[in-house]
Amino acid sequence: MTPYLEITDLQVEFPTQDGTVRAVQGLSYALPLGRTLAIVGESGSGKSVSSMAVMGLHDPRSTRITGSIKVGGKEIVGMSERNLMAFRGADASMIFQDPQSSLHPYFTIGDQIMESYRAHHRVSRKTAKARAIEMLDRVGIPNPGRRVDQYPHEFSGGMRQRAMIAMALVNDPKLLIADEPTTALDVTVQAQILDLIADLQRDFGSAVVFITHDLGVVAEIADDVLVMYAGNAVEHGPVKQILGTPLHPYTWGLLESIPAVSGTPGPLHPIPGSPPSLLAVPNGCAFHPRCEFRDRVADGLCGEKLPDLVARTADPDRLSRCHLTGPDRIFETDILPRLP
Amino acid sequence: MSTPLLELDDVTMHFRIKGDGLFSRGTNKVRAVDGVSLTLQPGETLGLVGESGCGKSTTARLITRLLEPTSGKINFDGTDIAHLSERQLRPFRRQIQLIFQDPYSSLNPRHTVGTIVGTALRTHDMVPKSGELKRVQELLEMVGLNPEHYNRYPHEFSGGQRQRIGIARALAARPKVIVADEPVSALDVSIQAQVMNLLENLRSELGIAFVFIAHDLGVVRHFCDRVAVMYLGRVVEEGPRDALYEQPHHPYTQALLSAVPDIGVVRGVPPRERIRLVGDVPSPVNPPSGCRFRTRCWKVQDICATAEPELAIPALVRPPAVPESPATAVTPDAVSASVPEPAAAMSGQLTACHFAAPPVAPVVAQPA
Questions:
Q1: Would you call A43 and B188 a contact, using CB atoms and an 8 Å cutoff?
Q2: Is residue B361's pLDDT more than 70?
Q3: Which residue among A4, A143, A325, B195 sits deepest, i.e. has the most Cβ atoms within 10 Å of its Cβ?
């Protein structure tokens, strides 16, 4: 299967007065049509920055981007603003976390969806409005014929996120990037939106990149998972393996930090310390200062050499960036018993 | 049961808002909290859960008396503090402290950590002036910060460390109750777990009672002894943690719990039946008559629109009332002996629903 989205050795850096912020460092992954990739990581791990690079949303005057991002064969890195305008919305589109601030309060929901449609199609307002109503109906907004003329403040949070999804999908993009689309929503509404995204993906056969920090959400919607830490991928593979039997100590730490709704109470085992500043990422493996297993690697290798993202077990589909030998055994003996 | 430390008795909080027309100004009310009764025992942790707009944060502001309730009683240690003046409240302010959600906006950026925590000490005359610095350092150490950092400013700390400063400030007054309004939801997962463990330790060491507000149901289960579920300004279900999570009797609690995405599915825990709620929470300006959840409830019947269900041990599991006819009269003792004591009655789980019943299938995944 040829991937629709292919990122190779992506680096995103922001030069600042205090030094260079190395937000993404050598990220590579590929995503075919019809699959959902969840990108997981804490704030500052580079998950949003890398996805904004896919949309060509970084200001070239203040950002240094190297490497390659190919979407449907088109190279995005270095693409002219004019070509990006044609690309955004038509080939790929994005949904943001906060539907409140990503809709314009002065224009009706319909106007905003129509604008997006007419940017890529030479059609009359009337045709575009019919299309907007069709899309609102498709994302489950009741009474779309009346709702299309309403303003964002007349919509509830869940409805606004539905409208955002309608706007993102109005041009049938093959790639949808959802950046924490349900984080601002209540759980019952979150469940509705997750169902909707899964439904739409089945119908449109698009590739979905789903950025989140909620591993429960990941377990429910993703096919594949990419775990990021300090600007780099530390683990990548099918969701069942990554969340079921992870191989990277950072993923272990995440799993141990989350109190499960079905779980038995007991002390959590949080990762000590806090994520590094991207101005001064630690040498070697960026996670080693917080890793409780670094002493099991000989010669302080973790502090000197960045491990490669490679298959650590017989399974070629799952990649991990760690020097530990036999991580699957360590997971069984040390981690599994203390998971919440 | 001992006397509760804190007791809310039918508390309401209505905010007046402008109406649509010229003459309706001030006549509309947002019924943010509408008849809430809760108790908190000394040293106990009570979780308040519910979706945005259900009134849980307003309840927190009522307990801490940052708001004066429209009606109802707030008994703290035997005194009704619901309508006390600012001056009369002084001694109570010390004993009920608040931890805020946002560690960025809840600390004054122009004050050093020493000043922030020290102000709390000075306001309540906790220590003589000479001992202030020493106590600040003790408090910083208690929450896991470097005591030498008392002269740093909030921006020099990370989000998790700032939340610790907020906790140190709350502890400075040696409170009996801490109301924590979403204390970990602004933090990254790994940091969230650190702060949770800190709160857990403080609770067991200092014996402070907590009112813990969160929308993350996993966090609440982890931290709380008892949980109250709120919907549109009212408590719809309340009970001991495990009973409530494993045997929720209210349809809303069942839907809420079943909507939580569960990581267990990848570890082979069988997926559960999802209860999907349709529509949105109605407006608290004009809540539905009768049961407020009826507009989204799948069990709805005619009675739900006319009679508001009380928060009580569910009728279905209550022993039947003594028949009126003397011929078939049975003594109450005989009734209670013949009906096996239901789990909900024993655990003290209360539900406000006409058709309260345990779920047909488990709503949270059962660990293998």
A1: yes
A2: yes
A3: B195
